[in-house]
Amino acid sequence: MPEEVLVNVKESIQRAPNTNQSILGISHRSEWFKEVVKETENNLRVLLNIPKNYHILQLQGGSTLQFSMIPILLLRGKKKTAEYLKTGYWSTKSIPDAMREGKVKVLYDGENTHFSKLPLPSELSYDPEAAYFHYVSNETVEGLQFHYLPGLKDGVPRVCDMSSDFLSRPFEVQNFAIVYAHAQKNLGPAGLTAVLLRDDLIHDAPDNIPSMLNYKNHIDMGSIYNTPPVFAMYVTMLVTRWLLNTVGGLEKMAQINERKAQKLYQILDLHPGFFQSHGEKKDRSIMNVSFRLPSIGLERKFIGEAEQAGFYGLEGHRSLGGLRASLYNAVTENDVDQLVDFMTGFYNKNKQFTIGTQNVSNSLQL
Ligand code: PMP
């Protein structure tokens, strides 16, 4: 969380602004809270230039629930096929729930190349009659990010899981039918998931959707269909306010994020037999930098010494191992400079373990 947001949150635990109540006890039916929800929507609309025909929803159930809600809306009872890209841990997780609702075709499967790269545009061939096309813009675990827009230009609804790069950079909302992103990354604390949904999609919804999984109910009730995560939604509003007023918008945020990532990849590239970057250069994520060291022992040592130096959360995801530095919006350039200094020091103390770069690709297959 950005420092400025944390200061405001701290105050609101005692007393939320313009109230006599703690944020932890305020009713989700109060006018005060409705204004919070409205401000987040307005801020997102300005930050992303979201057109009027898109609903902005704040839902529960994480991005994992979107793995089901989307195929329920767009695939249930249809003769068409949904097309998915399998580019890493999270896109792999998104597929089984779609298969429960109808036919799914995996257009690209990166598993046998250990999810170390994304498909080239020339490797993908789309069905212009597909029910929808789904991909994950930033594979959080592997640190792979699309730097081009996959999917057909017109016709097939493009659906994107932006959980780990939402609000890190601007994008054209019009290119998407649905965008979703959970919190505890750039958006806010865990507990809510933002969904941008083009209005026409709900007109053709099946009539057998359980009420909590029906987007229409959430639209009709302005994201307060049942008791929502009030605290998380309040903090998310503060984050959007910070992005607008303090950072100055997503162009600025993107420039900062680019610089942060560049600094970190620079040190990986300086010592490629020591810091072994997971993904291909062309697909590198500016949010999640996944890498390995020459041995698991060294990785453990790195994590231990990093924690002593005040750097937490550098362990890679359990499915991949290794190390991962997540550079979400709240991480400052100064934080990254300090991490780079720490990594330089660690390299200098342990560089005798460097392996020949010709062995790097083998070690990445582990
Ligand atoms: N998609 C992506 C890209 C993610 O990074 C994550 C979580 N890290 C998820 C989906 C799952 O989100 P949740 O835990 O909110 O269900």
Helix content: 25-40%
Biggest beta-sheet profile: 7 strands, mixed
Query: Could you give the order of strands across the largest sheet?
Result: 1-9-8-7-4-2-3
**H/E series, N to C?**
HHEHEHEEEEEEEHHHEEHEHH
CATH class of the largest domain: Alpha Beta
Q: Based on the coordinates given, report the CATH architecture of the largest domain.
A: 3-Layer(aba) Sandwich
The CATH topology of the largest domain comes to Aspartate Aminotransferase, domain 2
> What proportion of the residues form beta strands (DSSP E)?
5-15%
Count of spatially separate domains: 2
Strand tally: 12
Distance between the termini: 34 Å
Low-confidence stretches: 359-366
Provide the list of bound ligands, each named once. 4'-deoxy-4'-aminopyridoxal-5'-phosphate
Principal-axis shape = globular
CATH superfamily of the largest domain: Type I PLP-dependent aspartate aminotransferase-like (Major domain)
| Secondary structural class | alpha/beta
Average pLDDT number? 95
- Report the total helices: 10
Provide the gyration radius in Å: 21 Å
What characteristics describe this protein?
366 residues; alpha/beta; Aspartate Aminotransferase, domain 2; Aspartate Aminotransferase, domain 1; seven-stranded mixed β-sheet; three-stranded antiparallel β-sheet; globular
